[in-house]
Each structure stands twice: as C-alpha cells, then as structure tokens.
Write a structure and sequence with these properties.
With 199 residues, the protein is of the alpha/beta class. The chain contains 6 helices and 7 strands, in the order ββααββαβαβαβα. It binds guanosine-5'-diphosphate (GDP).
C-alpha cells in the first residue's frame, strides 16, 4: 500500500452522529485537541491546505466530526474538542457519548493524534482522551504543539516529562514536539501517519 499524499486531502462530510459516518472500511486516523491547542494549524501544515481547517472552524461544524479523504481508502477524522472545563454539563455529556462511541466502535480507526499546547500539556480534556484510548487499546501520537514558544531544551524537557507521566499507560503512546507555525516535526508526524495508514 502506498503512503497517502496528505496534500491531496479533500473534505468528505460532517456528521453529528455515528449513523451518518461512511462505511466502517479502509483506514481512519482521528485528530483531536482542546480548542486553541492548534489542531487547525496542524491540519493546515500537514495538508498544506487552509480550506480544510477552515471547514473545521465553520460555526456549527465545530461540534461535528469532520471527515477528510486522502484517497479511496484512507481518511482523517477531525474530532470536536474544546476548553473542557468551561463546557456546560449537558454539552459535555453529549460530546462524551459521541466520542466514546466513536472511539469504541470504529473498527477502521488506526490511531489518534492528540494536539496539546506544549506550555499546557495533559489538561483534564487530554487526560480524558488518553483514558479512552487506553480502554480501547488505541495508539496515540501526541503533538506538543507551539514548541517555537519554548527554547529547544525546555521543549525537550517537556517531552521527557510528558513521556514519564504516561509511562504506566498500556496502549502505545508516542510524544513529539511540534510547531505548526514553523513546520517543525512534520516529518515525524508523517512517518507515524504513514505507518498507521499502510502497515
Ligand atoms: P484550534 O482551536 O486547536 O484549531 O487552534 P488554531 O489552529 O486555530 O490555533 C490557535 C492559535 O494558536 C492561533 O492563533 C494560531 O495561530 C496559534 N498557533 C497554532 N499553532 C501554533 C504554533 O505552532 N506556534 C505558535 N506560536 N502559534 C500557533
């Protein structure tokens, strides 16, 4: 199987519940992060296509799962994320059910890209996603984004600290520094995605 060409990503559809998802076939990789962690900027950097991230920011679509095709069999699923603590309980509940069901039932799901701000890693939202991924034995690739805001040594220190904090998780978890603005770490991200989409 060939590696997908991420620059050829195209918008497929937005779904509000799982029954609307495309057939559970091929391979899907999901991406999520608290609002403002830089998920849209990561998508921009990966696909070199500002239109995709704009879709995900369109009012009304931020609470949906937005799906992007890469080729006939591979898809990226942009999952809704937000500032977890500020969300009203009813919305939190709805979000939890959607995400929980998606992560548990989606058989074509190969892994999860979890975007965090390197200056504020492992917030409650991120912990929740990591717990779920462990329960589903789903591999996670963590992008500690905005590493351009730190010195190289401070960024490396945070990468080490996050790895240490997660060492007891039983699922596969990778951690890397990333800068969506500067394009730093894109090669490593692509290598991880290529593995999930083709192995
Ligand atoms: P989203 O809400 O997670 O989709 O986040 P956005 O992609 O909209 O980014 C939120 C803010 O962080 C914007 O002002 C971006 O310009 C900024 N941002 C995103 N990635 C980076 C990065 O790697 N470095 C820096 N310095 N700023 C970034």
């Amino acid at each position: 199987m060939n590696n997908p060409n991420y620059q050829k990503a195209f918008f497929l559809l937005s779904v509000a519940d799982l029954s609307q998802l495309p057939p559970d076939e091929g391979r899907e990789v999901a991406i999520i992060g608290r609002s403002n962690a830089g998920k849209s900027s990561v998508l921009n950097q990966l696909t070199q296509n500002k239109k995709l991230a704009r879709v995900s920011k369109t009012p009304g679509r931020t609470q949906l799962i937005n799906l992007f095709g890469l080729d006939d069999t591979c898809r990226l699923a942009d999952l809704p994320g937000y500032g977890y603590a500020k969300v009203p309980p009813a919305m939190k509940r709805k979000w939890q059910i959607l995400l929980d069901n998606y992560l548990r039932s989606r058989e074509c799901l190969q892994g999860l890209i979890l975007v965090m701000d390197i200056r504020h890693p492992l917030k409650e939202f991120d912990q929740k996603m990591l717990e779920w991924s462990q329960q589903c034995d789903l591999p996670v690739h963590i992008l500690l984004n905005k590493c351009d805001k730190l010195t190289q040594s401070a960024a490396s220190k945070t990468v080490r600290e996050v790895k240490t904090a997660l060492k007891n998780f039983t699922n596969e978890i990778h951690v890397q520094a990333f800068s969506a603005s500067k394009g730093k770490g894109v090669k490593e991200l692509r290598a991880c995605l290529d593995g999930w989409f083709t192995s």
